[in-house]
Amino acid sequence: MPRVDSAIPLCLGRTKQQERAAGRPLFNKLGDLYGKRGLALLLLQKLFRSLGVVRTENGAGTANTALAFHAGRLLALHEGDLPYGVRVLCNGLIETMGRMRLSSSWKTSFTAHPKIDPVNGEMLFLGYQFESNPYVSAGILDEHGNLVRQWGVELPYPVMMHDMAATENYLVLMHLPLCFDPQAMVKDNTVPFRLRRELTSRIGLLRRDQASCPAGGAEVAWFDIPGPGFMAFHVATAFEDAHGNVKVYACQQDNINLDLDAILCSEELARLTEYTLVPASGAASSRRLSSVVGDFPVVHPGKATRPCRWAWLATMETSATCNTPSFTGIAKMDLTAQPGTDACAGCIAYPAGTYGGEAVFVPRTAAAAAEDDGYLVVYVYDTLADASYFHVYDAVKMGSEPLARIRMPRRVPYGFHGTWVSEQQLKSQVMWV
Ligand SMILES: [Fe+2]
C-alpha cells in the first residue's frame, strides 16, 4: 500500500485520581443511571458533592469519548469534564499529562466534539449544564491553546448538546430537545433523557468575533427547523456558501429510543440531513440527503469549517437487533447531491460477522489535490474469529477490500470516536499540564 504517516493506536490515560485514591467508583456513569436505582445514584452524588466527599471541580469525566490534537497537545475528551492532555511515548504507551486549565471564568465542562479551524488553528468549543442559565458556554482557544474568547448563552430550557459545528464566521449551536428528565428515568426505567418532539429543534449562529461575555448575554441568531423536534448526536460539518447562507450537515434521528435493549424502528435511525440557514431572512429548511442509515460522520480535517463536498459515515444495519451500535461498513456522501438524488456515492461493506467503529479520514498527503484523496482507517472486530483488525481503505474508490489489514494482538473493544495523529504531530507534542 502507499505509505501513510506512522500512527499509534490511542488509548486512555488516567483521569479519576479521586477514585484511585478512594479505591472505589465515586462518579456516576450515564449507563448506571437507569430507573429507581439511577435516581438513587443521582441523589447520592448530589449529597456527596454537598458534603465535599467528591469534588467534581477536580475532574469527574472518563475522557473516553473522543480525541483531538491541538496546539501540540493530544486531548482526551468527555463532555462531562475538561480535556485531559495525554502524551504518546516513543514506546507506544500513553502518559497522562494532566487536566486542562482554563480561565476561572469557565464554569462548565468541555465538549467531546470541538472543531478546529484549519485556516487559523483556532479550536472552537462549548460546554453545557442543566442547573441554571447560561446553560451553554462557548469559547475559542487560539492556535497556542490560549482561551481568547468566551460567551455565556442563555436557553429557554437545557438540553444535551453533544456536538456542535463551526464555520468561517460562526460557532454553530444545536439546540435540539433531548431534555434531562429524571422522572422519565423512573417511570420508563430508562436513562434520564427524553426527546420532547413537541418542542422545536433550533440551530443557532454565534459570531466568532463577538466580544466575550462569560456570564451570559451572548447574541445568537436562532433558526427554527420546520417539523417536529428531532435529535442529531453528531454533526458532519458546516460552512458558509457563496450566498452567505450557512449549511449544516448532521445525522438526524426523528425519534430516540434510549432503551439499550430495544430494536430500533426506522424513525429512530440516523440519516444524513442538510440544514440551510439564511441569515438575511431568518429562514431555515432541511432535507434528508440519503436513505442510508449511518452516524459518526467525518470530513477531511483540512475542510472543517469551510465548504466541502465529501463526508463519510459509519453505516448501521437497518435490521439492527438492538440499540448497541453495529456498524457494518462506511458510506461516502456527496454533500452537493441535488434534490431528488441520493447522496451516497459509495459503500464499503465489512465481511459478514465483522463490525467496526468510527472510520477516520486521513488525507494521503498534505498537498493532496482532491478532497477525497486519502484513506479511511478503522478498527473492526471479526465476531466469528474473535479477532480485531485495523483496516485501511481507499476513500476514493470505496472498495470493500482493504488496502491493508493488520491483526491486533488482542481484542479492541468497540469505542466511540477516534483521531489520526501523524508522525510529525507526535514529534511536536509539548510537555504540558
Ligand atoms: Fe460523539
Automatic annotation (TrEMBL):
Give yes or no: UniProt keyword Zinc: no
The protein's annotated catalytic reaction(s) are:
all-trans-zeaxanthin + 2 O2 = 4,9-dimethyldodeca-2,4,6,8,10-pentaenedial + 2 (3R)-hydroxy-beta-ionone
Give a GO molecular function annotation for the protein: carotenoid dioxygenase activity
Identify the residues that bind Fe cation. Answer: 113, 162, 234, 417
What are the coiled-coil residue ranges?
none
Its Gene Ontology cellular component terms are: chloroplast stroma
Its top-level enzyme class, in one word, is oxidoreductase
Keyword Iron: yes or no?
yes
Q: Known EC number(s)?
A: 1.14.99.n4
Q: What are the names of the required cofactors?
A: Fe(2+)
- Keywords of this protein's UniProt record, alphabetized? Iron, Metal-binding, Oxidoreductase
Domain of life of the native organism: Eukaryota
Give the note describing cofactor binding and stoichiometry: Binds 1 Fe(2+) ion per subunit.
Q: Name one GO biological process term.
A: carotene catabolic process
The record's family statement is: Belongs to the carotenoid oxygenase family.
What name does UniProt use for this protein?
A: carotenoid 9,10-dioxygenase
Query: Whose protein is this, by species?
Result: Gonium pectorale
